[in-house]
Amino acid sequence: MAHTVQSFVETLRADGVEAGRKAAEEIRREAQQQADQIVREANVVAARIVEEAEQQRQKTQERTRTDLEFAARDTVARLRDSLNQALNRVLSHAVTKTFDDLDFLKELIREVAGAYAKSDATKDERIELNVSEPMRRKLADWAIATLHKQPGADKLSFELHGSLTTAGFECKLSGGTVEVTPDSVVQVLSQIVTPELRQLIASSQEGQDAEQK
Asked: CA distances (Å), 140 to each of 83, 90, 117, 165, 200, in order?
């Protein structure tokens, strides 16, 4: 009987150990499965985060590139305007200074008035010359002594007025008006110089675009 009880106890002990081992193995297996599932889910989340971050980076990069392109375009436009304005100021200053040269202005008026006198030598016409009042006082005696000696001047009458508010002069005839002032001369000169200036800026911008690409 004692042998039987001892055997029964040993059997129970062995079964308990085996059951515990199996339970522990099942717990370990389930834990491993859960861990694997967590890792897989984490990998999916991480991949999605990386993908979204890459998309956001590309959007930000594209937006930044577009902003830079707009900024560069606006900067070039402002530079072009500033250069044109600076050019006009330089030209205006130079032309005004030249028109303040009395001898130069006399020669210019004489040539323009002479050209009118020759072209209208068969008509009785009146030529009005408008200059600034200070310049009119300087030119009055010269105009009387010189302009009436132009070829064809016997058919023309010359009047010198000091009604111009800028440097240079206006020459008025029945057929129209010739304006030789800083504004009119700068306008003509700007049309000659500005295209070259625009080409220079455009070439510079094309070089910058090539470097960025």
From this structure: 39, 30, 19, 17, 46
Question: Has residue 127 been placed in a domain?
Answer: yes
Specify the number of domains making up the chain: 1
Helices (H) and strands (E) in the chain — how many of each?
4, 4
Whether the model clears a pTM of 0.70, i.e. scores above it, the answer is: no
| pLDDT, tens only, 14-55 | 666 666 677 677 777 887 888 788 888 888 888 888 888 888
Any domain includes 72: no
Q: Look up the domain containing 125 and give its range.
A: 100-180
* Cβ atoms within 10 Å, residue 105: 21
Q: What is the pLDDT of residues 70-105, one digit of tens each?
A: 877 887 778 777 777 777 787 788 888 888 888 888
In a domain, 108, yes or no: yes
Q: Answer yes or no: are the C-beta atoms of 98 and 132 closer than 8 Å.
A: no
In a domain, residue 138? The reply is yes
User: Residue 74 corresponds to which tokens in the numbers above?
Assistant: 């606006």
